[in-house]
Amino acid sequence: MTRSALFLALSLFLAGCGDHARLNIAETIGPAPVLPPEVHTPIPTIHVADATGWPAGAAPVAAAGLQVAPFATGLEHPRWLLTLPNGDVLVAETAAPPPDPAHQDHSIKGFFFRLFQRKAGSAVPSANRITLLRDADGDGVAEIRTPYITGLRSPFGMALVGSTLYVANADALVAFPYDPGATSITAPPRTITALPAQRNHHWTKSLAAGPDGRLYVGVGSNSNVAEYGMGEEEERAAIWAIDPASGSHSLYATGLRNPVGLDFMPGAGDLYAVVNERDELGSDLVPDYLTRVQPGAFYGWPWSYYGQHVDRRPEPPRPDMVARAIPPDYALGPHVAALGLTFSQGARLGGLYATGAFVGEHGSWNRRPFSGYRVVFVPFAGGRPSGQPIDVLTGFLDRRNHAMGRPVGVQIARDGALLVADDVGNTIWRVSAAR
Predict the structure, then answer these.
(1) Does the pTM exceed 0.85?
(2) Percentage of the chain modeled with pLDDT above 90
């Protein structure tokens, strides 16, 4: 049997496995989400959208009052963005590093996981590159695209502090000298500190520069619920606070299964994160979330979720840790795969988007029907997320539920437009106010 025939047979078999969502997605979103009973099945729900890319001339759908157009196309798996003070935009063209043979999962579950990563468009070689995009004439299209830093190791997070550009590779935080007039950096990287790698179940390392002079890095877990043992989770499922001068670090907050997007709330200086929660508890559990990250707080992973809702799968049980767990601020819905996060300060998209945060939802694999595959705006009231999110960019799935694109990183451009990295569509989309 050919690989394609095997894949088709497996897809048809798995289509009848798992469960179907019982709740309206809106019930699972907001400051007080509904958390139904867990659903345990012999084979978890596997519902993966085929990654196809965009047909010629096609694009996502912008909300009323907004418009969307390509800012840059033909990229290689663009995932993360950084807007520089001079208006240039850096994009990390990146994917997971090659698996460490000593830590590769050779189980049936691991085989299926790799198979469906390919189906979803995630199992591609990493370009290991940061590319510079420049819209010098201000027409909303980057007419200059040039390799900015090459030879990296699955780069993801980026932060500019003064004349130093920091890049979070999959295995280390590194630094480069920054010259606003240059279109490339050829200087060798200066290592600030090593970051957890090995199995790299969650390989992305997001990065934010704090107002206190420290750098904050999101380090995801090495598993779903510590199935490889807690020894592989040392200093993972956490946000690190790093002193860039010495490279020393502390754990700012823990129990965060996969904290991806990080951003500091303008004015208040509070660190916020979007976090991917655990899988295989049913289509309605567990909601990914947006939260203010409280220093020293524990958010439950792997022993509990959404505060002190016990997950009985990790061994041994830790009721002492469950008792410490605090709930997050705002549920984004189960399995949406929230990745991108940026506050709306500087956006020129209209009053509806004046106070809050944009979130890129990459899209589900463990939920039927699909969730995510959109960019949303979470409004804030009284300094905290409140109410239902507002769709900003949708239409990433076609009528046959093929993924033409999948949104990842989000950034505000210098001109106030919203930029969205689409790793399946290999495009940076520019969302602006409709004329």
Answers:
(1) yes
(2) 87
